[in-house]
Amino acid sequence: MNERKIMSTIHDIEQLFTEYGHLHYGEQCSQLIHAVSCAWHAQQDNASATLITAALLHDIGHFIADKQKFTGVDDFGHKEHASIGANWLKDRGFPASVYQPIRYHVQAKRYLVTLINQNEKTAHLSLASQHTLQQQGGKMSNDELKDFERLACFSTALTLRQYDDLGKPNLHVSLKSFTTLKPWLPLIIQVLKEEVGTSSTLEYNR
Fold first, then answer.
1. Residue spans per domain, the chain
2. How far apart are CA 117 and CA 98, in angstroms?
3. How far apart are CA 57 and CA 55, in angstroms?
4. Which pick of 9, 17, 62, 71 has the fewest CB atoms within 10 Å?
5. pTM of the predicted model over 0.90
């Protein structure tokens, strides 16, 4: 992947957030605010650049499903948004350390709800997350728990899920100040550059 393709990917991400970032999908905040909030929490946790990027882009599958008019989109987005987003990012050259935690962040919610006392855990989920939990499979079976624990991205998927749950205004009212994607775009460029071994400097000047 060359530099032009990297910048084309950045443009596509910007366009998706411009077109769909204002939507709430049942949450109390817009998807833009939620995405930036999650990335901010990852940054405050000294997470890696790839995990911060995953936090920023973990729900991009909702936008793609909307834009491409997938069957199954409703007021809460698309129940398969995790795999939709992960596949889209993989196709655009993102490393597995970005797209695999995204692929499994919904399963991480199911895992945590199963492992922890269900009433205690669901009390910490937003109303939208509680609603979609059943659509996404509800509690895991014992076999599903074991399969999830064997994943190479098991730990990072759980961590991403924690950032996801933190990035909601009913938990942190200050998150309403996170209203722009632009400061985070150089980080995405950095992650893509490192994945393809690009040594030259890409600048973002919009």
1. 3-196
2. 29
3. 6
4. 71
5. no
Containing H/E element for 121?
helix 118-122
The answer to whether the CB of 164 falls within 8 A of the CB of 58 is: yes
pLDDT the model gives residue 140: 85
pLDDT score at 180: 86
pLDDT in the model for residue 15: 98
Tokens describing residue 151: 């994943």
Answer whether 70's CB lies under 8 Å from 20's CB.
no
The DSSP-derived string for 44-105 is: HTT--HHHHHHHHHTTHHHHHHHHTT-TT-BTTB-TTHHHHHHHHHHHTT--HHHHHHHHTH
Res 205: pLDDT: 43
β-pair partners for 77 = 74
Residue ranges of the chain with per-residue pLDDT less than 70: 1, 117-132, 134-137, 169-177, 196-206
Identify the three-state secondary structure at position 126.
Answer: coil
CATH architecture of 3-196: Orthogonal Bundle (1.10)
Size of the chain in residues: 206
Task: Give dist(CA 172, CA 34) in Å, integer.
Answer: 11
